[in-house]
Amino acid sequence: MSENASYVPPTRSRRGCFTCRRRKKKCDEKKPVCKGCTRNKLECKWPAERMRKPGQGGSEGIDADIISLANSSAGHKALAPRSRSVFVPETEACGSTINADSSECALQETDVTRGYLDVLSPETILSPLIETETHHGSFSDASKSSTSESVSLLPIEDAGAPQNALDEPGDEQDIAQVDNFDPYISTETCMIASPNLWEALMEPMPPSPTENIPASLSILPHIDHDSSELLSFYLQKTANSMGNGSTDVNPFVVQLVPLAFQNNLVLRLILAQSAVHRQVSQDRQPSNELAERHYTDSLRLFRALVGVYLSGKHDGILPLAVGSLILSLTEVASGDIHGSTFNHIIAAKSLLKKVLPQRCVGMTLDLQNFLVEYYSHMSALSIIGMAPQIRLNSPMEPEIEAMANKMVEGKYVGQLCGCWLELLLVIPQIFALGESMKESSQDSIRPPSPDEITQYALLQARVLAFQSVPTVHPETALAGLVFKQAVLLYLWSILAGPHTMYEGNKMHHNLMKDAVIEALALLSQFPATARVNTSLCWPLAIIGCCISEETQRDIVRNRLQTMLGTMSLGNMRETLVLLEHVWTQPLEDISPWNLSKMMEEKQIWISFA
Fold this sequence. Notes:
Elements: H1 3-6, H2 18-23, H3 35-40, H4 60-72, H5 103-108, H6 111-119, H7 122-126, E1 134-135, E2 139-140, H8 172-175, H9 187-192, H10 197-201, H11 225-242, H12 251-254, H13 256-262, H14 264-280, H15 289-310, H16 317-334, H17 340-355, H18 365-380, H19 388-391, H20 398-409, H21 421-443, H22 450-464, H23 474-492, H24 506-523, H25 537-545, H26 550-567, H27 570-582, H28 595-602
Antiparallel strand pairs: 1-2
Helix pairs in contact: 4-17, 11-14, 13-14, 14-15, 14-16, 16-17, 16-18, 17-18, 18-20, 18-21, 21-22, 21-23, 22-23, 23-24, 23-25, 25-26, 25-27, 26-27
């Protein structure tokens, strides 16, 4: 009998490689690389381990960061939030759409993955956009929560594939591979990805006839009327609300919009950001349907590209890095209280450390500086709200920090960091020092170590030496000085709370009191309607923890309300909601270092970026 006659084609089973399952091809189950992957020169992945083609470089560092994030965040309550009481999502739960024994539902029930599947739902970001009972008449009361859990997985029909397109559920080993889970990639996305997905999604948009931003949208004939309106809203309002007006040139327009004209992913993310911002603003639409659709579509496209990138295709890392940052600020604009912002920030760090040092194709120096500023701003002003497990991954990458320090030396001024980029770089260092000193004081009665005292002195000297760039707009200079006082209060409150006074603490107490008075005096010198207030949620939160008089609290309260009415960014509302909770506590328990504890108690996990 000939060899061909004796050959029996391999039958489809549950134990084939992930690559063949995704491609809907039969697998001969030969390890380490099956015949199908060998023939098509594809990466062969197996349930129990992740195999790579010999000599293939790529995303090991990114894989490690995402896996570490997933493993360390299992206990982060912010990632398994409860829905707001007034929001009833139309999307049904996973169990009503697919069999409860399927791998998707089984994956949903694991502690590690539940939070990341929450992030993939448009309801997670858009639920704060529905007006709830007003607090003080002008912002939503975020303290009320429903007893029902928020939907954590989109139905299959909403995920971009028909239900019958999924593979049969794998064995228990497939479900247990939490190490292979990525916060941006759902199970169905991994299963249905086409071999040509990357080429299709990364195809450039029609080129612009000029290098400048066109007055007409005719160069984008493929986008519909709603998308055109969203792009116009982005150019007119969203881009201005994202930036603080410290420079004449807005990089949210001159850097991101041309990139969006060339790349479909960036365009979709910008449209989603515009739709979300419009729903928070006074221009909100009667229904959230359009915003939900754009957010869902853009996130589906983004996580599909992340899946392709992790499989070894690295041509489009720049749009992915930019996309992570756009998503993080979109969450901030919506008033995210679930901690979703932090996932995007950590993913951005993993991508940027690959992109920035080598200045990949298509990246100008201005764009590079803007991305460094973007990440520095988001990470420094979000670290307070991160769970302890996630904070371990949050410090600045040495390469990114070196670039930022070089920008400081060049007197960099930006639309996010104003003239205080140097202070943003100090905040994570103060945070790390404070965590270290507080852990030491809890474990034993030993005083701070010589190294801790030295680092404290160096950080204080650096902050005290900070001066605003003389050439900036007066409002930007004043905002920089407000930041300076807030950073000093943050540093000084490591030693003792701002409202703690005892024998031997009078000088420290008076020092903090004087810093509060100075900060409030600086705030009175420029209006709350000025664009630079966009960047002031973090200092206002720190100052708010250090004031005890009701008249002083009214200054902070009224400023945040005015900022919300002017800039329409959801994090301004949530910052005030959090401070209102803080101000109900006994004075001896109020401190900037207890903000994270308050977030955990009230389940309000926010970024101050």
